[in-house]
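Supplementary Data S3. Sequence and structure tokens for construct A.
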Amino acid sequence: MTELTQQTYQPNSAVLTPPQPAQPNIAHETPRPEFSGDKKQEVFRIASELFRQGPDWVTFFREVLGVDGVARRLFETPEAYLAFEKSEQYTEIQQMLARLRGRNSSIPDDLEPTRVITVRLPKSLHESLRAEAHDRKTSMNKLCITKLLQVMDDELAPSK
């Protein structure tokens, strides 16, 4: 392992703004309008800086794409966020997330608690997921998380 991946992630206030007193969590600091420029580029810049710090994938997701992440704060409406999801910058952020997931998939519960959901699905879909996980030499859990992290096409999702 490199030194970068062995370090514990420490939020860095310089990711979002010019040097100032340290902030406890970069996701909760709002970029100043004169510093933000193009929103897609700003989110990508922040994600790139955070990626270089070598956090675990959960921290990266939370800080960049999570409910209180920088992307959700900059793209405040569902329509604006949906447009961001179709951008080249979003695709590159997803690739960063995938690389971080490949480094180490086990995240200590003290960094972020794990939640469990129950999903009811037809037996045939379950079998298909199980076969895909086997073919990819991964677990059902990792496969489902990977699929959940992907952008959903509104035309393919039922509205009711």
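Construct B, processed identically:
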Amino acid sequence: MSEFEIIDLGLMQYFIGIEMRQTNDGIFISREKYCRDILHKWKMESRKPMSTPNNTNEKLSMEDGAKKVDSKSYRSLVGSPMYLTATRTYIQCTCCRFNF
């Protein structure tokens, strides 16, 4: 206390995309809010889930004739679900076939 002022902010509730709830039974972590925030950011709240959102046999190429996309938006779109895979390895992202 003589060198640094410390403030008690209470129990941690949300940190780097992870919600935390502490009860008498233990500490529970969830990514529900982060997932909802991603869906809201990309205007996908009303979309229905799909087991495979695209053709798995599709051959992708760097030069397919489509117009160029904003690389910052693309990285955010692809990076958001990739961040989820850090703790939930069963989540798969098929968007990430190319290096940015």
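The chain has two helices and three strands. The mean pLDDT is 76.
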